[in-house]
Amino acid sequence: MTDNRFQGYLQSLGPGLILAGTSIGVSHVVQSTRAGAVFGFGLVGVILLVNVIKYPFFEFGPRYAAATGETLIEGYQRIGRWILPVFMVLTFLTMFTIQAGVTIVAAGLAANLFRDLADLSVSTWSVIILAVIAALLI
Fold first, then answer.
1. Predicted local distance difference test score (pLDDT) of residue 27
2. pLDDT confidence of residue 26
3. Does the pTM of the predicted model rise above 0.85?
4. How far is 42 from 40, CA to CA, in rounded Å?
5. Distances from the Cα of 107 to the Cα of 35, 103, 116, angstroms
6. Nearest to 73 by CA among 23, 83, 113, 116
């Protein structure tokens, strides 16, 4: 493949990869496969409904930000002063669960990948991962 064709191919993948990267997370990968194993096709209707409900947020949030030059937080604030405290409460209530889920999945992967080097528990790997991430952020 020539360099020009390859670059065009990568550019055509760009927006789709960005959308997939922001839309698909640990919960989707882990819990959807688990739900499929446990319930089979019994949840197909629920999955379709959730995707129909979720799609507008992934579609129109970035469009709004690009069209107005505002962040979504600024857009929420234009709705009214009450929305920002609601947004903060919802974010605060969900952040611990999301962080715990992502950390445990990463720790489980690390425990399996590096079990020959160090036979550490998932809890120990969780502490190591959180310490490394905290050090990077600091």
1. 64
2. 63
3. no
4. 6
5. 21, 6, 15
6. 83
Residue 131: per-residue pLDDT: 95
Across 2-43, the runs of DSSP E, i.e. the strands, are: none
Which of 62, 51, 53, 49 lies closest to 22 in space, CA to CA? Answer: 62
Give the largest CA-CA distance in the chain: 55
d(CA 95, CA 93): 6
Residue type for position 21: G
Query: Which of 94-102's residues contact partners 24+ apart within 8 Å by CB, and which partners?
Result: 98/27, 101/26, 101/27, 101/30, 102/25, 102/26
Q: What is the pLDDT of residue 127?
A: 94
* DSSP structure class, residue 80: -
Q: Taking a C-beta distance cutoff of 8 angstroms, is the pair 84, 73 a contact?
A: yes
The whole-angstrom separation of Cα 23 and Cα 46 is 17
65 in Cβ contact with 74 (< 8 Å): no
Residue 47 has, within 13 A of its CA and on its CB side, a CA count of 12
| Residue pLDDT, tens place only, 3-45 | 677 777 666 666 666 566 656 666 666 677 777 888 888 888 8
